[in-house]
Specification:
Elements (H helix, E strand, L loop, with lengths): L1 E6 L21 E6 L5 E5 L12 H14 L7 E3 L2 H5 L15 E3 H9 L4 H12 L2 H14 L22 H14 L1 H4 L6 E4 L7 E4 L11 E9 L3 E10 L2 E10 L2 H18 E7 L6 E6 L5 E5 L4 E6 L6 E8 L2 E2 L7 E9 L2 E10 L8 H14 L3
Parallel strand pairs: 12-16
Antiparallel strand pairs: 1-15, 2-3, 2-10, 4-5, 6-7, 8-9, 9-10, 11-14, 12-13, 13-18, 15-17, 17-18
Helix pairs in contact: 3-4, 4-5
Length: 383
């Protein structure tokens, strides 16, 4: 007996005019992702090879975060500053202003990289972890491959001029998503607007975060700016507002003002024109399903992942969800056994299918009980 239970998400239809029917922004390449659903809401030449500039530093911090998570590093570990690292504080680049021979804690170096965008701090961290910056760049590229950054090669830890330090805005988005998802506590550093470094041989120096969106009232909490004379201005940004998170990456803005204005425009587009719908919450019961010949008559099913869909506001009523299974499900049933499928349909097109698992074990009734139930079924059709 094939049984199909339809569960409809009841969503009110909002008659909201889409203000960005022909939306575009002034940048060479860009991408916008809804973090929770993973859906791409906008892209413009997103696979064009770019020089990622200081957005490279996102991966530099990820390598450190990975090692901290494994227990190979802790925030109090000290790193000795080499002349190579120090020279970057004297060459006109963004710097933390460290000195040769300084012993600096990993915590301070991370602040210097994330908030002050210190190229010198990047080199000090890279050499402290891998011995040389070149070896550290190999670790960065390996990590990029691991998380799905297919078009990226890292040649240094800071992103300053190197023709082999290459990526795409799509890959930078993947990297940003990984950072936020896997290191939410460390990610909080990216929204800090200033860092004071009690430097050697001088007064403490306070520097502000270069991310212009942090100073706007739009819910921005990261991520990283970049600039190279060839690539011009870039920004990986994220906002977290009203239960939604969007990640945007743009590269090739003509000016700082363009970077700020157009990135804000891109994020606003995502908030204004789309809604996020939660279909299911991980490990929470969704539906009860009939059980045949079991010691229990029903069993609850669940999905082991959060399921979200991003829907255009003017078309939310086209979203439908159904639970499909051959039922009733015959016992015995083991815990976490796949017994049904959750199907998500948008505008008559399947946009997702997910396994539904049994929430517990259900044992089979004994022979006498099975016999009685079978007779009842034959006579009354009652299962």
């Amino acid at each position: 007996m094939y049984k199909r239970l339809f569960v409809y998400i009841l969503l009110s239809f909002c008659f909201i005019k889409i203000a960005f029917a022909n939306f575009d922004i002034k940048v060479k390449s860009a991408i916008l992702q809804d973090y929770y659903s993973g859906e791409i809401l906008f892209e413009k030449d997103a696979d064009r090879i770019i020089f990622p500039a200081s957005m490279t530093k996102i991966m530099t911090t990820i390598i450190a975060f990975d090692l901290i998570k494994k227990g190979d590093l802790n925030l109090n570990d000290k790193f000795i500053v080499s002349e190579n690292a120090w020279r970057l504080s004297e060459a006109g680049y963004s710097s933390m202003f460290i000195m040769v021979g300084d012993e600096i804690s990993l915590e301070n170096l991370l602040n210097g990289i994330i908030i002050s965008s210190g190229n010198d701090a990047c080199v000090a961290l890279a050499e402290g972890i891998a011995g040389t910056e070149e070896e550290f760049a190999i670790l960065m590229t390996e990590k990029a491959r691991e998380i799905g950054m297919e078009d990226t090669n890292f040649a240094n830890s800071s992103g300053i001029n190197n023709p082999d330090n290459l990526s795409t805005v799509r890959d930078i988005m993947i990297m940003s998503n990984y950072l936020i998802r896997n290191y939410p506590n460390f990610y909080k550093l990216f929204k800090e607007t200033k860092f004071t470094w009690d430097r050697t041989g001088g007064e403490p120096i306070t520097q502000g975060n270069r991310n212009p969106l942090l100073y706007k009232n739009i819910g921005a909490d990261g991520i990283k700016t970049g600039f190279l004379s060839y690539e011009k201005y870039s920004l990986a940004s994220s906002i977290n507002r009203n239960g939604r998170r969007l990640i945007a990456v743009g590269s090739g803005f003509n000016s700082k003002n363009d970077r700020s204005r157009e990135s804000t425009k891109l994020l606003t587009y995502g908030l204004t024109n789309y809604d996020l719908v939660q279909i299911a919450r991980a490990n929470e019961p969704i539906q009860k399903i009939n059980v045949w010949l079991g010691k229990e008559d029903f069993i609850e099913v669940y999905t082991n992942k959060d399921i979200y869909k991003t829907i255009k506001k003017a078309k939310k009523k086209l979203l439908k969800v159904s639970i499909n299974y051959f039922g009733p499900i015959e016992a015995p049933i083991s815990k976490d056994q796949k017994i049904a499928t959750l199907k998500v349909v948008y505008d008559q097109e399947i946009v997702g299918e997910y396994d539904l698992l049994s929430s517990r074990e259900v044992k089979k009734v004994n022979f006498i009980s099975r016999l009685i139930r079978s007779i009842n079924y034959l006579i009354w059709g009652d299962v």
